[in-house]
Amino acid sequence: MAKSKKKSREDLYGSKIIQEDIVQLAKHLKDQLKHFEGKTFLVTGAGGFLGNYIVLLFRYLNKYVLKKKLSAVLLDNFITGYEQHILSDENLTFQKHNVIEPFKTDKKIDYLIHAAGIASPVYYTKFPVETMDVGTIGTRHMLDLAREKKVKSFLFTSSSEVYGDPDSKFVPTPETYFGNVSITGPRACYDESKRFGETMCVTYWNVYRVPVKMVRPFNVYGPGIRPDDYRVLPNFIEHALRKEPLPIHGDGRNTRSFCYINDAIEMIFRVLFSKAHGESFNIGNPEKEISVEELAQYVVKAMPYPVKIVHIDPPHAVYSKSDPKRRCPDISKVQKAMGFKPRYGLKDGLARTVAWFQES
Ligand SMILES: NC(=O)c1ccc[n+]([C@@H]2O[C@H](COP(=O)([O-])OP(=O)(O)OC[C@H]3O[C@@H](n4cnc5c(N)ncnc54)[C@H](O)[C@@H]3O)[C@@H](O)[C@H]2O)c1
Question: What is the CA radius of gyration of the chain?
Fold first, then answer.
């Protein structure tokens, strides 16, 4: 087994690279600290890639920054998250819970982040019904909870996949683009559940005045991403660390843009704390749309030893029949509304990610 696959949650806490990221994140969110002071958060999908950074940020803020500590209820059923329990403390309470069941709590909730989901094509192909359910039934339960608790804000992590395979006239893709999504294709269980999840959110704003926001992340990557997640970047790095050729599905001409995790988390909190009720925001990095082939070359260059690239037949219909050709965000809406510009370029972010994979 590759060394990096042995990473456990305890290793994540011990990671120098992640620690640096969390310190930077807290610094960059300094102007938002009043929203964290003494507040109660509920986070679903807390055991996942984004959830982990959110939990580590909470822990850091409580330990070093906030005068009045925040508290948080953290939910995950670990269908794809790390099996280890998230360490609870007196302020952060982890509960194993499947959000397709209603969740009851006596606690007040100020902010609710619904980040549970099954995002990797390999996993949503394995669990298509669970994928639909978490995006639809799970979102409904969380909206009902948000309504009952009269939250200050509710954030749904939708996806850039709501755009499907966009017409090239709409790349970079703005929020106003309605999408080009197959209703029944191999990706529909994910794409359509995120689309309907957003419909529910905006309806709860229109009908019940639940102050919802939706974010549509575009390919977030960084330390803490599950090494066996099969998304393109961790897949390349895993192969490179094993000194095996990097497998490109097909011709590698599909393009993507990549957003470093710190930028994504900063945007998530800026949107959560904003007054943009009922609005959807692309979050990502428009810096450079690069092809999968170029990405492989980036990874090759980031390694201290030579690594080869191979082209293989896509292992599954989710890639061969329906892989979007282009994916690049227009983030002018979030930039304008939140005054935010991504801070991490691909070269820096990739170096940090490779360094994390190499930490033991
Ligand atoms: N990372 C990205 O690039 C990206 C891009 C677009 C959208 N998103 C969305 O952002 C959210 C977080 O993404 P991530 O990369 O952290 O994904 P992830 O797979 O690492 O984490 C999601 C977590 O949700 C949990 N989960 C799934 N179903 C659940 C259920 N029914 N009840 C409770 N927990 C459940 C999983 O166990 C996992 O720990 C997801 O909703 C995803 O769809 C992520």
Answer: 19
Task: Spell out the residues 6+ positions from residue 10 whose beta carbon is closer than 8 angstroms to its own.
Answer: 84
**Model pTM?**
0.94
Residue 81 forms part of a structural domain:
yes
Mutate-to-test residue for ligand 1 from 49, 94, 131, 327, highest number of ligand atoms within 8 A of CB: 49
The CB of 79 under 6 Å from ligand 1? The reply is yes
The verdict on residue 99 lying in a domain is yes
Report the nearest-CA residue for atom 15 of ligand 1.
Answer: 49
230-246 confidence digits (pLDDT tens): 778 888 999 999 999 99
**CATH classification at residue 172:** 3.40.50.720
pLDDT tens digits, 131-145: 999 999 999 999 999
Catalytic residue among 177, 190, 221, 344: 190
Q: Which residues constitute the domain of residue 277?
A: 3-226+259-288+328-344
Closest CA to 318 of 199, 157, 139, 189: 189
Q: Is residue 87 part of a domain?
A: yes
Instruction: Report yes or no on 350 lying in a domain.
Output: no
Q: How confident is the model at residue 80 (pLDDT cuts 50, 70, 90)?
A: confident
